[in-house]
Amino acid sequence: MSSSDRGKxxxxxxxxxxxxxxxPSRYESQKRRDWNTFNHYLKNQRPPVPLPHxxxxxxxxxxxxxxxxxxxxxxxxxxxFYGQPEPPAPCACPLRQAWGSLxxxxxxxxxxxxxxxxxxxxxPFASATIRVYLREVKECQAKARGIAYKKKQKNKLASPxxxxxxxxxxxxxxxx
Length: 176
Prior knowledge:
Low-confidence stretches: 1-15, 161-176
Shape: globular
Largest sheet: 2 strands, antiparallel
Number of domains: 1
Structural class: mainly alpha
CATH topology: DNA polymerase, domain 1
Radius of gyration: 21 Å
């Protein structure tokens, strides 16, 4: 493949596998590993789940299964450190997958599903159920760690200073 063909493939969004002299990017390697892990998970279900029968419930079960390998401490509501970003001592609360890791994983699996012949209309990784689950995980982990996630304003120029009331500026630019 000539360099001009390679550039054309990139411009057209071709998903040809890289030639022998090109290594896949870190993202592509991780996406392939994630896809293989998910397929392995489906095959190990009793009974095994064929990919065409996979739905958002299988994806949710997979995400919950991954929690056992997590490294993020998520304090339970009864824990005396609940809501503290930096607790002073260890506790028995569980380790979970961090929200950001799950969000990135779903993004890679969503892309891999379609690259492997799945339809965007039936993509179980793109379902509303998965989006709701990820939002709930994000909010739960934020509360447990005492971190307030606020929706980012779209226009950074209009962001109010710390003393201003958000409701009065509403994120609009005004020119004098």
